[in-house]
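Deliverable D5.2: sample structural annotation.
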Amino acid sequence: MKIRPANEQDLLELSGWFLSESEANNWGGPSIHFPLSLEQLKIDIEWNVAHSYALVEKNGDLLGFAQVFNKFGCKHLGRIVVSPKMRGRKLGYKLMAALLDSAGTSDVSFSLFVYKDNIPAKNLYESIGFEVRASPERRPEIKDCIFMVKET
């Protein structure tokens, strides 16, 4: 498996992973319009602003997706998701390791938000060195989120 820049086909595939507005919003935030359409999704996830990555199997099957933004003085990770069919196989660890390795430098800090009730994701992030910090923003849409940072 490898990580590579995501493409529009990846977006089309991952749009089928979210079966409800709630699932889509839990992944992408309150700006996500549901049902998902390619052109609106590209706007909603800031496709032209963020660096988008796909975790893929050797045969090209999409296993995961994440984005990286330059925010909060960090490489900010967002919209992290593993294929529902592939969950429980430690792919979250592999996706995160690939994202962190892609930074290519040891003086980069990473940040992310995670919903308070997403205990498996929070545990994953803590296990690879992320720590809870005070949120840099006070916006209503992140009220149920925890801000985490990994210093390198």
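Annotation notes: The mean pLDDT is 91. The helical segments are 8-15, 21-28, 38-44, 91-102, 119-127.
The annotation will be released with the project's public dataset once the embargo ends.
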